[in-house]
Amino acid sequence: MSRIHDMGGRLGYGPVQPQPSEAVFEQPWHARALAVTLAAGALGQWNLDMMRHARECLWPADYMRFGYYEKWLAALADMLVAQGVVCAQELRTGQAMGESPLATRRLSAAAVGPALARGAPSLRSAKAASPWPVGTRVRTLLPARNTRVAGGHTRLPAYLAGKTGRILMQHGSHVLPDSHAHGQGEAPEPLYTVVFDAADLWGQPERAGDEITADLWHSYLAPE
Amino acid sequence: MPHDHHDHDHDHDHPHALLPPDPALRVKALETLLSQKGLIDPAALDAIIDTYENKIGPKNGAHVVARAWAEPDFKQALLADATAVVAELGFYGRQGEHIVVVENTPQCHNMVVCTLCSCYPWPLLGIPPAWYKSDAYRARAVREPRKVLAEFGLKLPEETRIRVWDSTAEIRYLVLPMRPAGTEGLDLQALTDLVTRDSMVGTGLPQSPA
Lengths: 224, 210
Known about the structure:
The complex is a heterodimer.
Chain A: H1 28-41, H2 48-56, H3 60-65, H4 68-82, H5 88-93, H6 109-118, E1 123-125, E2 137-140, E3 164-174, H7 177-180, E4 189-197, H8 198-202, E5 211-217, E6 221-223
Antiparallel strand pairs in A: 1-3, 2-3, 2-6, 3-4, 4-5
Helix pairs in contact in A: 1-4, 2-4
Chain B: H1 23-36, H2 42-55, H3 58-70, H4 72-80, H5 82-88, E1 98-103, E2 108-113, H6 122-125, H7 130-133, H8 135-140, H9 145-151, E3 161-166, E4 171-176, H10 188-194, H11 197-201
Parallel strand pairs in B: 1-4, 2-3
Helix pairs in contact in B: 3-4, 3-10, 4-5
């Protein structure tokens, strides 16, 4: 059920290559790609969950061969067309067919600082009723999937599907990506950090007692 | 949909295939088109880039860590409600709306990953480095964290448990590394200078004093 982005635990990758003192942006166009994406996002025609889903819906071969910011650009182009902000003809020719009615929403240079400082909090209620206290044993949904939209966006990784863990933290009630990514509203739910024993995930852990945590919404879980 | 100018050998209708294949030209094409339509202001793009190249970066997180080392009350407040504490320091913002700080101890070493994308505490650490966004790190950090740490030159004592935090929601994690030995006399700035970015992700340790 999972898409190509769901990488946790996959085998076959080579070493991680740390570069302790690299530039913030390896290439000038990386910086432009990030900035164009953020500035276009400020038009308010999609939310973060929708954009994540657009990246996840790239053709798998594209997802794997694209670099990080190439994924961003491809998803941005797809989203701009899907939301009717630009049309395919404009993308093809690179020529605008007139000014957009959304131009009044354009992010100005002066508004950048406040917009970045404001962020987009997902917390909707700090005191959400959480029926499961810290320490509760819970089991995750199997298979990992969006239960509202077939093939839809979810934040339950496949490697954690059907596993038993224990609630470690409660975070109040947060916007549910499975709903929010599909225009079905924020549908906030209690969010928990759940801790899993590495042996329960991998069979043979690197070391007995190592742990993995993930932040999971109420509807991803059932009490054991 | 025609895409014969593109190097795809498959047939699909993703609009991004209409853009030029070279990524630098792709950005330029999008930026030009959106500017023509009045949707983006190139000066705003410059301001965004300047923010993450020059204003927001790991020095913010290093300041938080050094204060936690130096001031027990600050550390206690930070571990109890990091979002409120860092917001007071001006380190609230995009991709850092909900912060949790996790403390390394001799018993437990914390390490942060995002297996599904690239979630990272931007207001405290800036834009994530290439390795954090790499397929190898995303795939392997949860399954074989000790091998990954070895690739960073970090070998933990056998008695230390690893807890890997997979950032699957909007909670952003900052690791509070252990204060290095021999730093008792150092002032806040000297402590801050010892805190590396990787030590706050959990793939490294702070530097030792010279």
